[in-house]
Write a structure and sequence with these properties.
Helices cover 49% and strands 0% of the residues. It has helices at 15-23, 52-59, 94-99, 105-118, 124-151, 155-180, 191-200. The longest helix is centred in the last third of the chain and has 28 residues, at 124-151.
């Protein structure tokens, strides 16, 4: 009778061990082993060691020259404060000059023009406010002229001109106060005209 796959011999006490040995796969012996890094050299140094001479040279980089003074930064609380420094060739405080071009009506317009004619290029803040105030007055004058021309045909345009004059007057007063206190004033609608006026009107003398 043919031997079946799962036939067992209960009389052979070593039969289970033989089955385990038959099913066990023996891997070939590996003749290679893991390489190990060599120990660090005793003389190897990871950091540079300074002797007394090198340390003294590092401690005195200017070699006896005058050491520059420490730069003192501006206090953040003082950045928006108005400056009472007198502007060159004018003799008036900076905060007053920056506020004058925003005064309503012809006062601010004339002040802005005179400042651009006499304030030097080195006074960038004063010249910027002079050009911006002058540009604002020119824009207000053009709009008022248009509304006045239309106002002869209709009473609605005449009333609109009156409201526009009132609003712009209040706006200019607010700008003048902010400039006098050192607060930033930016009229975005007249940016191009401001740059053109500041560039084209050169200081005299």
């Amino acid at each position: 009778m043919a031997k079946k796959k799962f036939d067992t011999n209960p009389l052979d006490p070593t039969f289970p061990e033989k089955i385990k040995e038959a099913e066990t796969v023996v891997l070939p012996k590996n003749r290679f082993k893991t390489s190990e890094f060599p120990p660090p050299s005793v003389t190897e140094e990871q950091t540079r060691r300074f002797d007394e001479t090198n340390f003294n040279n590092y401690n005195s980089p200017y070699n006896g020259q005058n050491t520059p003074a420490n730069y003192k930064t501006m206090n953040l609380a003082d950045m928006n404060k108005s400056s009472s420094r007198k502007v060159a060739k004018i003799g008036l405080p900076e905060n007053i000059l920056t506020a004058l071009p925003y005064l309503p009506f012809w006062i601010g317009l004339i002040a802005g023009l005179l400042m651009l004619l006499f304030v030097p290029k080195s006074e960038a803040k004063a010249r910027f406010h002079a050009a911006q105030g002058l540009a604002a007055h020119i824009g207000i004058f053009i709009v008022s002229a248009i509304l006045s021309g239309v106002g002869h045909a209709t009473d609605l345009a005449d009333m609109g001109n009156w409201i526009f004059t009132l609003v712009t007057t209040i706006m200019l007063i607010v700008f003048a106060i902010k400039a006098w206190r050192g607060k930033p004033v930016h009229i975005e609608s007249v940016d191009d005209l401001t740059e053109w006026l500041e560039d084209k009107i050169k200081p005299r003398g």
